[in-house]
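Input.
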Amino acid sequence: MDRGQTMTTLFTSRSSFQTWRDSLSEHRTVGFVPTMGALHAGHISLIEQAKAKCDVVVVSIYVNALQFNSDTDFTRYPRTEETDFQLCAHANVDAVFAPVKSDLFPEEVVKLVTPSSNALGYEGADRPGHFAGVATVVDRLFSVVKPRVAFFGLKDYQQVAVINDMASQLHPNIVIAPCKTMREADGLAMSSRNRFLTPSGRESAASLNIALKKAVSLWNDGKSQSQELIETVSKDVLRDSAIEVQYISVVRNGTMEQVQTVSENDVIVAAIIVDGVRLIDNMSFTNA
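Output.
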């Protein structure tokens, strides 16, 4: 084994994982990357950042039924466990925790965590109960994994805001590390959903990133009113009849609070539907 390389252990049992976790020295910093599997380069970038900052890295793979709004969506979600584990092993993850539902949630009735006000609107409005499910499973995983730092991709901007609020209340010793969105060569934000796009749908979806970059460029040129920037993005993406816009808004950095006059680090968030696939993206207003 090469210097710096580690063996990756797969745990499917909560008790065996906890035995391993309890064996770690309290002086070792544990980094955690929660996932629902179907891993892609965006997840690997989170793992790489965790490895750079922490002594031990744990990746969870758990398709969380609590955050889906329909049985169809839950069933459709891709399961690629063997490939996922191989990717984790190649990235030198220390442990992969892939529990079954009855082990992670042994109780007959799961008491849902009530998410913060950042869960209201946007994804929260279009997917009722979604963020309660997200907060509940992340809370449970945090309790089992006991990380010092947890890494989340900013592609899911609202999710990061909700989890940050939950952690500050229930797990104040855990640092939430937001990580930049990883993109495909055409600018499309990496997502497990991208695999469901047709070639033409993929081309249409890429226009959202172009429109968001244009909004940031216009802000750099002095246009600071959010409504004007939102209308520009909407007009640009709706030139393509294959795109249905769910929402476009500008929010204060780290929150879902709408802003009228855009300041540096505020964020433009958007959701569209292409080929029946819901895609989300966002971009921060930063000086060029």
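Residues 192-282 form a domain with the Pantoate--beta-alanine Ligase; Chain: A,domain 2 fold (CATH 3.30.1300.10).
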